[in-house]
Structure formats: C-alpha cells, structure tokens
User: Fold these one by one.
Assistant:
Number 1:
Amino acid sequence: MNLLAEDAPNVLAVPLDELILGIVAFLIVFWALAKLALPGIRKALDERTATIEGGIERAATREAEANALYERYQAQLAEARTEAAQIRAQAQSDKLAIVEEAKAEAVEAAATVTARADAAISAERASTIASLRSEVGTLALTLAGKVVGESLEDDARARATVDRFIADLEAQAAGH
C-alpha cells in the first residue's frame, strides 16, 4: 500500500509554471479591468447615485411644497368655516331683527286699527245718544202733551226740561 501512495501523483499539487502563468494572467486581466472597465462602472455608479440623490432632493422639495399647500388649504378651510359661521350668525341676527320689526309693525297696525275702531265706536255712540235723546225728548213731549191735552212740542222750555231730566237719569246710571 505504501507503494501505491508514493507513486500516485498529488491531485492538489499545482505545477509551478502554471501557477506563475495564472498569476500573471490574473494580474493582466485585473489591470485591464481596473484601467478600462472600472472607470466606466464608477462613472455609471456616480451618475446613478447623483440621479437618485437628485430624485430624493426633488421628492423632498415637492413634499415640502405639498405640505405648504396643504397647510394653506387647511388655513383657507378654517377661514371659510369661520366666515360661514359669521354669515350664519349674521343671518340669524337679521332674521330676529326682521321678526321683531314685523312684530312691532303688527302691534303698531293693531293699535292703529284699534284706535280707529274706538274712534268709530265713540262717534257712533255719540250719534246714537244724540239720536236717542232727540227721540226720547220727542216721545216725552208727545206723551206729556197727551196727558195735558195740549201740544208741548213747540215750547223750548219744555224741551230744556226734558233734556235736563234725561241728563239726570244718565248721571244716576253712571253713579251706580
């Protein structure tokens, strides 16, 4: 068994000339990549980074603008709500003033109608009283003339007596 292990080639052993050739080839490829491909890759990465950072800055700027616009909108909305509340309050105040004015006008109109009605009633009453006095006086004179047997209608003194009698009756009625 020992013989076989010594005669067999080592699978892990690399020949020295292949190793040197591989290292030189690796260094040439590495140098070529570093000089030719790496600057292009760096440039592309830098551009990509700048584009991303610019996009982030633009997004931040737009976000700030959107926030400012939102705050302005909120302020305008609050102002509009305040103005609407003031308009509602003014409308309520105007409504109450109009109702009060209408009530005052109605009371005034009712007072005017009542005063006219009172004046008409007073005038009608005075007219009725005057008419009744005249008729009662005429009836009293006619009745007295029938009792006495003579016409007393022409006598002014008899008329004055009848008027005085009616006035006394009214005074007694007013006293009770």
Number 2:
Amino acid sequence: MKYVSIIFVIFIILISGCVNKTEKINLSIVQEPETSFDDPMVKVAIASVVSPKESYEYYEEMIRYISRKLGGKVEIIQRRSYQEINDLIKNEEIDFAFVCSGAYIDGNSEFGMKILVAPVVYGNSTYNSYIIVHKNSNYTSLNDLRGKKFAFSDPLSNTGKLYPTYRLYLMNETPESFFGIDEQGMNNSFFTYSHDNSIIAVAELIAEGAAVDSLVYEDMKEIQPETIAKTRIIEISPPFGIPPVVVSNDIDPFLEERLRDIFLNMDKDEEGKEILSMVKINRFVYLKDNAYDSIREMRKRVQ
C-alpha cells in the first residue's frame, strides 16, 4: 500500500527544523483522456499532514487519475507548512489544494478560499483531535502535562494546534504559560510540521504529549502498529469538519466545475473506487462552509 506513513514515519530532522523544500512532480497522461482541457498545466498543492515523501505517495495515484480525467498534466507542489500552501492559493499560483481544516478557516477569512469537495472517511465527514502520551506514562489528562515537552503539528493546524490551545484557554492558560521552558531556556512546546512526526515524537519519548489528527492516528494503526502501540490516547475532542479540498475564490469557473465533478464521481468507476480504497476514502462530497463553524468559534476565542 502506497500510503506507507500518511500518516507516518519519522524524519526527526523535520522536528529539529529542516530546510523548507518545494517538490514538483509532473504527472503526464498515461492513457487517452476522456475530455480535453485547454490549460496546459493544472497545479495542485499538498499540505504535509504527514511527512513530505509520504504525502506525495499518498496522493500520487489520485492526482494521476485527475490528470487523465482533465486531459492535461497536473503538477504537484509540496510545501512544509500550511501557511505556505495558503499563500500559494492566495497568490493564485495553484489551482486547488488539499489542506487542513484550520488552514481553510484562515484562508476563507483572509481571502475567500472556497471548499471544492471534502472526503468521507470511515463513513464520516468529521474528524477529531487526539491528545496522546507515551503508553508507559502515568498521565491521564491534559492537566498532567503541565511543564512537559509537548508536540504541536503546525501553527495553522486545527487538531494539532488550535484545539489543544483552546483547551488551555478554557483553563486560563496559553501554551507558553502551561508548558513553560526547559533548562536551556527553550519552549517546551514545539512544532513537528506533520502529524506522523508528532506521533513518533511521543512514541520515541522526544515529547511527553502531542495533539494529532485522528485520521492520521487511526490509519497509522495499520501502517505502523508498532509505533501506535507505544502511545495512548488521553483525550478526544468533539467532531470537526474534515480537512477539505479547496480552491481560490478567483478560480476559473469551468475548471472548478470540472474538478468538482471528477471528485464527486470518483467512487462511480472501477479505477476511481480502487484509488479511493487505497487511500481509505469512501467518497468525496460537497460540504457546506458551516461544517467548520465550531473551528471558527475556537479561533475567535483564542485570538
């Protein structure tokens, strides 16, 4: 299964802060297209919910499928942070993107980013934030992690940053006041820039706790069960609108409609169903913007 670690395998170098890198891959048509598309190149950005290599492997076959359906080449652009992906959409340097829910809320508010479609996974169009710790620890609640090393995924992540920050807000705390600083004067909380790295940070005792995407965690149970076995969930958030596929507010209407049609019908042909099964998506649906209102409310409270 190409999904390897999407949820999944540590490149510790990312935790310590590697150089931001842009990966570009041209996916050419490998069979006769069903329809032709005039634009010589459509660009899609992939936010690194998991480590960059795994993110590419996870989406590769899906993007090839979309390329064939469009009848033209699709270029994949990867960036390390969610903010970089939002900037690409804002500046109209890409046509569509796979982003997290928190990044969508920011982009929608700042420059009108729009939902194209959203996946249904495990029968649901929602997901959760998991607060996790090492299995051998005696921590049973977030409050037990005061003054401990804690891993966030990305500054714009809903499950990996906003939700735990909101939880601390309800305790009249901030990440800085709650987790504190270490003996070297460094913050005890840090960013790993992917949920798989955060999970592995806890499993390998680099962090004593982390907030992670439930979809990543659940899929990793199959991909890397030995890693998940070293961790334990101590808190599950309420459900949130699932990370969507998004487009710019100024996207060409014809391209927007073509892309939406391809995604919404992907589960209706054998090739599409096989690819969806491989990445554990049931189907794509159109999700209304109000599905993300609870995330907006948390954002307002912590700002």
Number 3:
Amino acid sequence: MLRLLPQAGTPRVPLRGMLVYALALLLFSGMDAVSKYLALRHPVPQVAWMRYSVHLLLMTVIFAPAMGRGLVSTQRGGLVFARAMCLVGITLCMMFALRRLPLAEATSILFVAPLLVVLLARPVLQERIGVVRWSAVLVGFCGVLLVVRPSGALDGIGVAFALVTALSSTVYQLLTRILSHTENPVVMLYYSALAGTIVFGLSLPWFWFDAMPSTLEALLYCSLGLLGFVGHLCFTLAFRDAPASLLAPVTYLQLVWAGLLGWLIFGQIPDGYTLFGMSIVAASGVAVAIMGRQPEPVVK
C-alpha cells in the first residue's frame, strides 16, 4: 500500500510536492469539466453514480488486498459517514451548478468555502483568528460578490446551487479537520466513494440512461472516477514532500485551470468584472494561508 506520510529520515522535495499538488488541482478541474459536459446531456444522478462507482472500484482493487478489513475500519463511524454524505451533497449540487454556470465562475464561488471555514474555525475548532485573517475573509467575500453580482449574466439558480455547494464543502472541511487526528485518509476517501455509489445508485431506476451515451461519452463516464481517484491520490502524495503551509496558496491555481478549461472546451471567457472578482478571491485565500493555518483546500 502507498505510504501517505513521509517516513522518518526520508528527505522532502518541496518543489516536487508543489508540482504534484498542481497536477491534482488540474485533475479536479478536469473532472469538473467532464461532469459539466456530461451533465448537459445526461441526468446528473447518473453522471454522479459513474464518478463514484469507478472511484470505488479502483480503490477496492488497489487498497483492499493490502488493507483488508482495515479499509472500512474507523474509530468515529458517525462522523465519517456524515463527512461522506457532505461530499455526496457537494457532488450533486456542483453538477447542477455546472449545468447552469460557466466552469470558472462556478469554481470561484466554491472557493468561498475556505473563507467560511476561517469564520467558523473559532467557535467550532477553537482556533484564534487574527485581524488580518478576518480582513482577508471580508475582502474575499467582496470578490465573490463581484463574480455573482446581480447585474451580471449568471443564472440565479446556478448561483444558488454553487453557494449550497460551498456551504456543504465548509462542513466537509471542518469534519476533515476534526477526523484527521484519528482516521486514516484512505479509509475516509473509501467511505466517500462507497456512500456516493450507494446513494446515487438508488436513483438509477429513475434515471438510467434515458439516452444511450455515445462512444466518446462512455469514455468520459469512465474517466470521471479515474480523474477523481488519481486527483485525490496526487493531492495526498503532495503532502509527503511539502508542508501544508507551502501548498495552501497553490490551491488557488485551480481557478486558473478552471478558466483555461472553460475557455478551451466550452468557449466561455469570464468578463472583466468576473476576472477581477476571481483575482480578489484568490488573493484573499493566499493571504489567509500566509497569515496562519490554512483550512483544507476544496476537493471533490
């Protein structure tokens, strides 16, 4: 089984960690782009089920032989299940948001989640939040308002789904922080894949392939789980070589990937106000990372 933490005496290579982390973010953005493409043509629960079922299959094949029953062994099963259901909600709402919003704008709204975690870190995690971090959070919210401004052309329902995604992601990140002290990250990820496969699988009798996918769409369906699995694997392995404080600012590179993929695949180019708002969100997140302990980045 892959070792997820560096062994004692093993030298870290921060640059390699940052590059692997950037690759993970590209894969996450690629998964969003594929999800958007498929969700425009097929029912969202069907797309989500394929994303999780392939992910579950890959994890079972790779980790089960070495871990055995340890792959489902947890000390705080209730919270692990709640965290998994949060990720299911994130996937569902994000796919509905992507049906109505450009990729870059939807991603930038999702990035309000790390800022919300900062707001809740004191009452929930008992962490001290300085004036500079509070200020960065407020500026970040202003950036989000520029992206979703009432006079803009974004679909209101899509924005609502993106905001619900951000709220669900906030709870997901807080639970991840709480569980990180007692739970194996592989086990938590396996439970997430298992929960998504079961929940979305229950909806299949109502949505199962109303329109049969083309050969390209079938390949894209299979790629969803692969992108998610490899993305999460790279995300985890990056921490073997680089500390969280160094990787956290790189998280906002995902906004760049989302913008590029949205342009290349869908021909969607954010306007000047939106680009300015995205820049503010990214700058605020980097400031939060530099001034203190950064909440876990957005993952899917």
